[in-house]
Here is the input.
Amino acid sequence: MARDREHALNTDAIQQEQPAGPATGWWTEAVIYQIYPRSFADSDGDGMGDLPGITARLGHLVELGIDAVWLSPFYPSPQADAGYDVADYRDVDPLFGKLSDADRLIGEAHGRGLRVIVDLVPNHTSCAHRWFTEALAAAPGSPERARYIFRDGLGPDGDQPPNDWQSVFGGPAWTRVTEPDGRPGQWYLHLFDTGQPDLNWDNPQVRAEFLDVLRFWLDRGVDGFRVDVAHGLIKQADLANWEEPQEILSGQEVAKPRPPMWDQDGVHEIYREWRRLLEKYPGERVLVAEAWVEPAERLARYVRPDEMHQAFNFEYLLAAWTAPAQYAVITRSLEATDAVGAPTTWVLSNHDVVRHASRLGLTADGGRHNGIGVGDPQPDAALGLRRARAASLLMLALPGCAYLYQGEELGLPEHTTLPDEARQDPTWQRSGHTQRGRDGCRVPIPWEADAPSYGFGPTDASWLPQPSSWAEYALDRQRGVPGSTYEMYRTALRLRREHGLGRGPLEWLSTGDQVLAFRNRGLIVMTNFGAAPVPAPDGEVLHSSAPLDGDGRIPTDVTVWLRP
Ligand code: NOJ
Ligand code: MG
Here is the structure.
């Protein structure tokens, strides 16, 4: 292992000597829209969104003006973690359709000028994957078990887990199996749910299998992969104990020891191999890291010129809604990715966090908030939406690539009063009902105010109940309505494209405690975070997240785009 590590470090040194010219390509300035297939559109009325539903709604995405979609997993799965527990990487779950529906979706999206990114889940399989079934049927020490991380337990009876690691969803990260002879046996590692056994990435079979899975989808024409838990594939070889709780990024710049399960140097070699494979395909296919890694310089290592193309910028998502915090995270992100020649990505919402229209109405302090439910302090909906609109207009004016999460273009809030009995995220159970988890941001989205399930599907079935207050957010109540959140996004995406805002560069004009302002390609963008209105700079207002006041000043929590 010592030699392996040395090897990894040496390779790193060589890579860093490469000149980092700025990357070019569609993805450097794209707006990418995340589709959560369960909750986007249901074609058959079973209450579960599906691939034909998505295909039928592609017109909406073209009208909105995005460049690409990223689809969360639709592969066969017991759905222990909403499809992030994959039983077969080369097929479609009957819940969502057939493989031919995926082909049709990719083809029709391409026909409309949209690129398609699919989700790849390499850190773990489902416990229903053939490999795991084979591992359970085989003996300790067998090649079948060596595809996963099986260990004997501690204590005289082996009834203590091999180390003290906790699952991200709560509870221990190890589960004991029953051996084929019926006796209690070894333990397997699962950093997430028990239904998600971690793969052993030191095993060449695992590496070969995923290269093949990449080829399978590349051959079907996908434009890239969002790589789930990209920071987790390699574990520190000694599986050393880690007393700290499993926490997502702190968002604070504090030096902390690196946990033995995250961001190990060995992961980078895997992505270099994948990049080499992608380069063999025509067109510009991309790899996007989901890596909860800080600080920004550590994250930037995932997007060095011969690794992934992008990494989600979660420090940005978690940043407080204040001028100094936003200034700090934006500059830090740009510096870190500039240093390796990669574009920065920006993201405010996804299927794992409280939607920003609610998050920003709860507190301006930043952080993740693992769900909101009945009995919890409720966000201020109007304040949340006002800030969310300002935040989105600020984000869409930044150079780099922006990710949108389905429904944010409608100003959709979190479902913050979802009955606990309806919750399906394993977090709620595994945390002993202390963390409500992510269901509130996963509720099927509203299309038509007066239709059953708000037009999500042809019936009123919906796998998570929709709040009775969502008619006002439905697309048909916002389309063509000046000032609606939907029209605000549409205009922003059009202007962003016309002015090439994704290309930058950004030049700061004002970085005070109350106001941020910058120039990007001839436009001035200004956000007022302060309590009092501020005068707008001279120029023509092209766009704003809310009207200016009667004296032409920018009110609190408003972003404007001006042409000087
Ligand atoms: C990150 C995914 O976004 C999340 O939904 C999932 O639970 C974990 N990875 C585990 O796959
Ligand atoms: Mg359906």
User: Anything to note?
Assistant: The two ends are 59 Å apart (CA to CA). Residues 272 and 343 are 18 Å apart (CA to CA).
